[in-house]
């Protein structure tokens, strides 16, 4: 009997534990879904400026797809490092440090109280005429500040600019019903203007070299008694080039002069005739016992 009671108690504990886990998971899921669908009013998370210069902070609305026709919020900022121009010098009924960006059908009211240490600046944006219009997503207004504190050399001072919790930011629908929303403030970082900002090194990844494929020679076995192919050289043929519509024959190559040996005449031995005296015939005898010379000589002389 005791064992049965103990088992029943363990089962109850297990069931209760499962129920608790389920409730926690459901609550977390609800908070996540609620955060994703909630209206948001935000300031820039971080804004860096040089000391004694102006800084402009936009107030941005994210309607999350809902119809928002009215917004109320209050700004709390660090008066030691930031100065806000709360006077209305231009006569538009708003502090000079506040610049509305809403459509003209919306009425904007703003008041400044420097003695209010939890919310110096209060803003109300509403549409009082039917049908109520929806505020467009994006900047609703710009807050103009001037930095008045100077950090140490190369130092940084951080001045928070938050949405006040008194009163808390609120959003309304065209039916006058409250719309759940959140507001997120920011920080103004004031740096020393005399010291140059320190550059943040940027990591540049170095590409890894890709492996280059290397060709591998694979020997091919040659069968025995295989015929051997011998390539035949191709003799280029001169192709005539057309010129003026006509084809010119190829120009023959200029012959190279060849040295011709000079033939030197060799003297030929010529046989010199030898005069052989022949026996003189005996002088002819003329009749009367005289020769011819004796016979005609007187005749020649007489002439």
Q: Supply the number of helical segments.
A: 2
Q: Compute the average pLDDT.
A: 74
CATH topology description of the domain at 37-191: Immunoglobulin-like
Please tell me what the overall shape is. Answer: globular
Content-based structural category? alpha+beta
Helix content: 10-25%
User: Which CATH architecture of the domain at 37-191 is right?
Assistant: Sandwich
Q: Could you give the order of the helices and strands?
A: HEEEEEEEEEEEEEEEEH
The CATH C-level class name of the domain at 37-191: Mainly Beta
**Biggest sheet overview:** 8 strands, mixed
Unreliable sequence segments: 2-6, 21-35, 241-249, 268-272, 295-303
For the terminal residues, how far apart are their CA atoms?
Answer: 211 Å
The whole-angstrom Rg is 65 Å
Q: What is the β-strand count?
A: 16
Percent strand: 25-35%
Would you spell out the secondary-structure blueprint of this structure?
Layout: H1 2-37, E1 39-42, E2 46-50, E3 54-62, E4 70-77, E5 82-84, E6 98-100, E7 107-112, E8 121-126, E9 138-147, E10 156-163, E11 170-172, E12 178-179, E13 181-184, E14 186-191, E15 242-243, E16 246-247, H2 292-302
Parallel strand pairs: 1-13, 2-14
Antiparallel strand pairs: 1-3, 3-9, 4-8, 4-10, 4-11, 5-9, 6-9, 7-8, 10-14, 11-12, 15-16
